Amino acid sequence: MVPSTKNDRPRIVPLSPKARLALRKLIGRRETGLILNMIGNVIRLRLHKMGVPSAHAWRHGWAVQALRNGVSETSVRAAAGWSSGAMVARLKTLEQENARSRRLLAEKEFDNDMLRMVVAKEKW
């Protein structure tokens, strides 16, 4: 559980068994305090310096994968800490647009492959 978030509401964050074990090792016996002794801005700057996507990008990526894998919108919204379904709806819309773009690209590549086969057959 995250006892305090940016909107001052506690949130339960699901973690894999591997992540829980790593976190327990990192925290040790401490009951309170920052895990990495860093505030959010320092974490953001370090991630940026390493060329790693932001924590928000990771959360959005997780949410999209969860939705793709059949996790309910309500569960995704709760786990991500969003108070309304607006962000989930936005992510679903973006995912649908991306899926359409991927499908159109695949169709175009198929058409190009077919054209190459016709041209190659005519050369025989």
- Fraction of residues in β-strands: under 5%
Report mean pLDDT, rounded to a whole number.
Answer: 78
What is the overall number of helices?
A: 5
Q: Multimeric state of these chains? A: single chain
| Main sheet record | none
Shape: elongated
Order of helices and strands: HHHHH
**How many separate domains make up the residues?**
1
How many strands appear in the DSSP assignment? 0
Structural category: mainly alpha
What's the end-to-end separation, in Å? Answer: 69 Å
Estimated radius of gyration = 22 Å
Helix amount, in percent? 55-70%
In the predicted model, the low-confidence regions spanning at least 5 consecutive residues are none
Describe this structure in words.
- The protein has 124 residues and is mostly helical.
- It has one domain (17-123).
- The protein has five helices and no strands.
- Helix 3 packs antiparallel against helix 4 (73-80) and helix 3 crosses helix 5 (86-123).
- It starts with 16 loop residues before the first helix and ends with a helix.
